[in-house]
Amino acid sequence: MKKVLVIGGAGYVGCVLVEGLLAKGYSVRVLDRLFFGREPARSFLDRVELVVEDMRAFEPEHVRDCGAVINIGGLSNDPTAEFDPRANEEMNTHASIRVAEVAKAAGVPRLVYASTASIYDRGVGEQSRDVLLDEDAVVEPRAAYATSKLAAEREILAMADESFAPVSFRQGTVFGFSPRMRYDLVVNTFVKDALDGGMLHVFYGGEMWRPLIDVKDVARAYVIALECDAELIRGQVYNLARENFRISELALRSQLALRAIGVPAELDADYAPRMIRSYRISSEKVEKILGFRSQVSVEESIGHMVKEIRARGLTDFTHPRYYNIEWMKLLEESVRIVSRHGYVLSKPGWGNRPGERSPTEGG
Ligand SMILES: NC(=O)c1ccc[n+]([C@@H]2O[C@H](COP(=O)([O-])OP(=O)(O)OC[C@H]3O[C@@H](n4cnc5c(N)ncnc54)[C@H](O)[C@@H]3O)[C@@H](O)[C@H]2O)c1
Predict the structure, then answer these.
(1) Which CATH number characterizes residue 13's domain?
(2) Which domain, by its residues, includes 103?
(3) 203 assigned to some structural domain
(4) What is the pLDDT of residue 361?
(5) CA 324 to chain centre
(6) Is residue 172 in a domain?
(7) Could you tell me the distance, in angstroms and rounded to a whole number, from the CA of residue 335 to the centre of ligand 1?
């Protein structure tokens, strides 16, 4: 196998995926504009080719010598998509389609696209439609994020032909430890809540369903897509989850798993009405056709997360970097404040030469 291009390789899934690809002997090019900095990717940056670029400026040179592209870049949840719907559409739809077009034109034989199971969202209260949904279910997403993902998925899969095998994984909500940690994903939020005050907050009684999968299992599914017979993925959609849980059950299981490793936590539930997403999916197709078997349960993942969070000191739980929407808002505000001068406190170059003073020095 030649080189794999991972777009968004410095993100939450990316940091785990890239380590997995390197361990399996792939050579990896990461294209990422590093919204979350270099630090999370530090352990592998000297072993990959890093292209710091916006995926909206994607060019043929980015796929040179690549045998596959894995596109996990762009905005990755509802709040960030709603914060800037235009940027969301540019990245998640238009840029993702262009990446596939460029890859196909360059003769790259495979492309993996990270779609989302949230395109199945039915909301709570629609009992007659509250069933396990497979890849043939009618989907009518309303939210900006899911709509942008579905639009890209349709265009990308339509490009399939004998020389190009694109595949889309409609992933459930991911959980588990990554060096680029996110505490805005439900299981990770429970772990953070428990470590940071011992209270797991459950909204709307936890009635809503969610499909869930560990981040290492997601990486494993992508590797299968790189290595299987191309006919099995050509133009295909695969749902990807280990299990579906109501959030209420997930909270109870998380509470028990945390208690078992000495992290006690109480449950706090409310029934305040709000916009609730709810959906559950069947992962039978990925199991039957690709032979995918998830390996990590919620309970195992929680144990691993607590260990890693503590060992690496990722316990500054209120830092915006762990919450995509908080971080994006902060970056946007910083740009507005800083762009006129291009620096915050020390201007680059000032004070480098003996006797030189910065204009802010008195005298
Ligand atoms: N995490 C989940 O629960 C989940 C569930 C379903 C689908 N997905 C999809 O999986 C993919 C990865 O999710 P994640 O949790 O790792 O997200 P993430 O936000 O942690 O990572 C996204 C990465 O993409 C990079 N990126 C964003 N916009 C970019 C741009 N314009 N140009 C270049 N790089 C850019 C970011 O810098 C970041 O490193 C996303 O496509 C997401 O929509 C994630």
Answers:
(1) 3.40.50.720
(2) 3-182+211-243+279-296
(3) no
(4) 40
(5) 10
(6) yes
(7) 21
- Cα of 53 vs centre of ligand 1, distance in Å, is 14
Cα separation of 6 and 330, whole Å?
Answer: 26
Residue nearest (by alpha carbon) to ligand 1 atom 1: 174
Q: How many domains does the chain have?
A: 1
Of 185, 192, 200, nearest to 317 (Cα)?
192
- Give residue 71 CA to ligand 1 midpoint distance, Å: 9
Per-residue model confidence as pLDDT tens digits over 106-159: 999 999 999 999 999 877 766 666 789 999 999 989 899 999 999 999 999 999
Distance 12 CA to ligand 1 centre (A): 7
Ligand 1 pocket list (CB less than 6 A): 8, 10-14, 32-36, 54-56, 72-74, 76, 91, 114, 116, 171, 173-174, 180, 182, 185, 324
CA of 89 to the centre of ligand 1 (A): 14
Report the chain's mean pLDDT, rounded to a whole number: 94
Percentage with pLDDT > 90 across the chain: 85
CA distance 6 to 19: 12
- Over residues 167-178, the pLDDT tens digits come to 999 999 999 999
Q: Is residue 78 part of a domain?
A: yes
Establish if 53 belongs to a structural domain: yes
Mean pLDDT, rounded, for 75-84: 96
Minimum CA distance residue for ligand 1 atom 9: 114
Q: pLDDT tens-digit profile of 61-70?
A: 999 999 999 9
Q: What angle do CA 214, 142, 35 make, to 5 degrees?
A: 50
Tell me the pLDDT tens digit for each residue of 86-107: 999 999 999 999 999 999 999 9
Q: How far apart are CA 32 and CA 218, in angstroms?
A: 19
Using CA positions, which residue lies closest to atom 29 of ligand 1? 74
138 CA to centre of ligand 1 in angstroms: 25
- Give this prediction's pTM: 0.95
Q: Is 110 left (phi over 0), alpha (psi -120 to 50) or beta?
A: beta
Q: Tell me the per-residue pLDDT of 28-39, one tens digit each, with 9 for 90 and over.
A: 999 999 999 999
